[in-house]
Amino acid sequence: MIELHGVTKRFGARYALAGVELTVPRGEVFGLLGHNGAGKSTAIGLMLGQVWPTRGAVRVCGWDVMRHRQKALERVGAIFETPAFYDYLSGWANLEILSHYTARTSRGRIGEVLAWVGLSGREGNAVRTYSHGMRARLALAQALLPRPELLILDEPGDGLDPEGLHELRLTILRLHRELGLTLLLSSHLLNEVEQLCTRIAVLRQGRKVFEGRLAEVGAAGNLVRLRVGDFAAAVRELQASRLIAGARDGRWVSLAPGVGSEVVVRRLVELGMPVFEIARAERTLEEFYLDLMKGNAPGSSAGNDPARPA
Amino acid sequence: MFFLQLRNELWKLAGKKRTYIGFVMFLLAQNIIALVFRFTHASRPLRRMLEGNGYAAEPFVSALTIASIMLIPLAAFLLPLYVALIGGDLVAKEAEDGTLRMILARPISRWRLLLVKWLAGGLFSVALVAALGGFGLAFARLYFPWSSLFVWMPEQGIFSIFAPGAGLWHYTAAHLMLVTEAGSIMGLAFMFSCFNVKPAAATILALSLVFVSFILEHIPYFKEYQNWFFTYHLHLWQLMFASQTPWWRVGESLSLLLGFNATFLAVGATAFQVRDIKS
Fold it and tell me: Scanning A18, A225, B83, B249, which has its CA 20 to 30 A from the CA of A89?
């Protein structure tokens, strides 16, 4: 649905994106993660034809955005952090104005979308009277008007209270389930991404440092939690048998390459050491993300390796 | 779709309070000027000028004459201010508010968006000039009789008197040409608005250029180069009050203003086309 090929964007001497390769497959809820200034908004700007790439190509819905912007964005909706509207006009007027930049939109369609986002009855009020949550719903409504196949959400949870975030999460799940949309969610709310996304990419200082399925993130390499009677003795024996590469915190051991946890259990039982628990470690997205930000290479699929900018 | 988008641009303009500042200020200024002429001795120089040239003053101290007198300061100072304000807002304000990013997430070309906005600005200029002319005549008519028109514009060498019917025609023609002044200044501000600047900066830049051109045009050294200046051609509307309209000069100024406007639009569109739209 979205493809970035070797995309570099430079603002003066600063690289906002450097040789990024990214693919968002149809039907996914794709999370784009990264610190502030990592290049997420620039990447979204490129996808929407709002930012010109210094190098590389961007394709959306099969079309080159730079050459065929109109075709590429025909079935795309977008929501930005702190959605901006013509505050002095009504919600209805805003929807009518914005939708006409895509195509003629019937009153019936506007009413239908307003009902879907739960704004029916307030569409006649000026947007300046709307709460933050209502503005977020109006933003969703304008994005849904052209019957999109792809919805791009740039930090949609910014400024929402916990209730608003919960509502947003349910809405995104509904959009995916009921309308079958492909969603690209740019966020630094890791909890949201973890609950919503099927696939993620992580940007750091304009480079993609990870792209893969969220399920791959949970597997923390060869780390297992081990509970035995005497942890220190068990570690000594396992290291002597070259079954583990290391241990830490009195409960974690790193399995040696090619060694399964059943081999460790068997060895400990042979040594007469009772094993109370052995389990593969599950990393949270937060742990994984922080590891990436520290520059630790992920255990799963590798990121791109662009030529380092000068 | 194009007309729907144009209607929407006008809808946006009509919804903003600042759009009406110009109309309200014209109402106030014209009322004050009309009252001053009616209840003070402000018309005395006018009478002396007419009587000194052998005319009976009374028939010429009319609604048409007062409305035309009002036009001179308003067209020189207030009109440029309000059209520059709107022109400077058209793109830059949307960029500042973030609505431009919402628009450009949709499959509309930047060129088409600009064209629609520019046309909306043009239509606003027409409406403002129409209001200027209409209000002026209406207020003047409240306090002065409907009779002949006398116009004296020494800078253009104009000393004209017209019967009421012909006077109305000249008054209307002057306003038609005034649209070119309003549209050109709006276009200049619009050009700056297309760059990555604040709306106020676009307005100030446009007004600065107009005032600099006006000042240079009036420096004696530049007298023989007057026709090189933008503002020289903006005074085109004054020529419509001449007894014999110098159509060659009108045509020359119109074609130059057309060139200026095409340049402003092309420069603005190019700047807008190549810039990145970021939050």
Answer: B83
Q: What are phi and psi of B59, to 5 degrees?
A: -65, -20
**A79 Cα to chain B: minimum distance (Å):** 8
Q: Where are the domains of chain A?
A: 221-282
Interface test with A, best of B8, B102, B115 (most A CBs within 10 A): B102
Pairwise pLDDT comparison (B228 vs A310), residue with the higher score: B228
Q: Token pair of B31, please? A: 């009322």
CATH assignment of A221-282, among 3.30.70, 3.40.1390, 2.60.450, 3.40.10? 3.30.70
Cα–Cα dist A75/A179, whole Å: 13
CA gap A257, A97 in Å, rounded: 60
Residue B142 DSSP symbol: H
Q: Give the burial class of B186: count Cβ atoms within 10 A of its Cβ; 0-12 exposed, 13-18 middle, 19 or more buried.
A: buried
Q: Count how many domains chain B has.
A: 1
Q: In the sheet where A63-64 sits, what is the strand order?
A: A14-24, A2-11, A55-60, A63-64
Q: Which residues of A touch B12 (CB under 8 A)?
A: 86, 89, 97
CA triple A120-A121-A123, angle to 5 deg = 75
Comparing A51 with A294, which gets the higher pLDDT? A51
Q: Identify the domain containing residue B240 by its residue range.
A: 2-274
- Give the residues across from A277 on adjacent strands: A227
Three-state DSSP at A119 gives coil
Question: Has residue B85 been placed in a domain?
Answer: yes
Q: Is the pLDDT of residue A298 over 60?
A: no
Residues in chain B: 279
- Which DSSP helix (H) or strand (E) runs through B92? helix B79-97
Residues of chain B with confidence (pLDDT) below 50: none
Query: Encoding tokens for residue B38?
Result: 């009616």
For B265, phi then psi, to 5°, come to: -65, -40
- Within A155-248, strands assigned E span 182-186, 199-204, 207-213, 219-228, 244-248
Per-residue confidence band for A301, with pLDDT thresholds at 50, 70 and 90:
very low
Whether residues A80 and B98 touch (CB distance < 8 A) is answered with yes
Nearest CA to A22 out of A202, A195, A185 is that of A202
